[in-house]
Amino acid sequence: MYPRALVSRTSPTSSVLRPRLRGVADIYAAALAVPAVVALVAYAREGAATLSALVYGVSLVVLLVGSAVYHLPGWPLRTALWLRKLDHANIYLLIAGTATPLALALDGPASVWLLSAMWLAAGLGIIKTFAWPHAPRKLSAALYVLMGCFTLPTAPALRAAADEVFLLFAAGGLLYVLGAVIYALRWPNPAPLVFGYHELFHVFVFSAALVHYLAIWALVV
């Protein structure tokens, strides 16, 4: 079974009963991400490829470790609220971090536009998270998807350069969108006391992150 600390309890930031598997996948994802990122940076080509791999890798590890820490049970309310803000802010960080290797692989104005737009949007999203922590979840989900759509104008150039990378980015983006829909609607909610909509949302997020990791590996190695 699972450690006592992972058994159901009420969330410190709401009155909803905590599913038994809340945060379990986060711990495994964070543990796998660290060596995966080290390998990515170590094998990346020199120059911009290494830099972009490092930016992406740091954003991925920060999100996954932050999520794993936040979803551990037992935090005092004040601490849990701050960890939740960081958890949500890190999503914007990862979106921009994931786009960075793509932007640096492009040429000319497309590279500058994508890099500038993504990191400006990430900064604004992080400010929004701390200034308006109780924003409607549908709004937050829509902002995540909208930010991801900034990559669409670069799709033809990416497909021309590397068709397999384009397909992996597209597949990962679709998984992220499906996860955002589940998060916004809180549905489906298969087993609320064990594995609810939030756990399903995280499965889609982690699956998307894996697909994008493979895309970035193909792009920078």
Automatic annotation (TrEMBL):
Q: Where does Zn(2+) bind?
A: H71, H198, H202
Zinc as a keyword of this entry, yes or no, is yes
Give the superkingdom in one word: Bacteria
Bilayer topology: Multi-pass membrane protein
Q: Where in the cell is it found?
A: Membrane
Query: Which residue ranges traverse the bilayer?
Result: 27-44, 51-69, 89-106, 113-135, 141-158, 165-185, 200-220
Gene Ontology cellular component annotations, sorted alphabetically: membrane
* Pfam families for this protein: HlyIII
Q: State what protein this is by name.
A: Hemolysin III
What is the scientific name of the source organism? Answer: Nannocystis exedens
Taxonomic classification: Bacteria, Pseudomonadati, Myxococcota, Polyangia, Nannocystales
